[in-house]
Amino acid sequence: MDQQQRWTAVDEYLNDALVGEDAVLRAAHEASAAAGLPEIAVAPNQGKLLHLIALTMGARRILEVGTLGGYSAIWLGRALPEDGRLISLELDPAHAAVARANLHEAGLEKVAEVRTGRAADSLAELIDDAEKPFDLIFIDADKAGYPEYFTLALELTRPGSVIIADNVVRRGRVVDADDTDPNVVGVRRMHELIAAEPRVTATAVQTVGVKGHDGFTLIRVLG
Length: 223
Description:
Layout: H1 3-19, H2 23-34, H3 44-57, E1 61-65, H4 71-77, E2 85-90, H5 93-105, E3 112-116, H6 119-128, E4 136-139, H7 146-154, E5 162-166, H8 182-196, E6 200-209, E7 212-221
Parallel strand pairs: 1-2, 1-4, 2-3, 4-5
Antiparallel strand pairs: 5-7, 6-7
């Protein structure tokens, strides 16, 4: 068993033992695959981590940057109370259509909304509309846009809000300051902005699993 096979086997064991991915979540994966969406949704144990963070915070308002097929949105939406709200931003209208259908099948259409367009434009619109602050913001979109997404998302928070940015390790390439890949450059620049921002405190964690070697950054907005 090579390293990746072992990581995948451990994820499968943990998912079976603790996560409890149900038929609705599996169907969302299957519908996304059938529609030709890329296989880049969060893993089940990562989805449940988002769910548990939202529950632990008592989040009532959640913003997601990057919907894809709505798999992570289902995990997040399930953590909301009946009068909660989830806004998810997706560039591709075809992806958004799949996500809306999956959210409907999950019974979340009353709390979850998918908006299409460039994420930076949608974030700016939310700011211009004086949208109420979000308790939790999950960023999982094109990594080149992460610096802008973080900067704009911060304007949609309150003291105590949490921002989570996914896929920030890039299989370890994040350590290479000479790497010109826009995804790596974007992640590194976001971390520079976070480090220089007095309104937040943050950490980042490496992960291994079915998705390979990656990680996430956890940011808390200070009071």
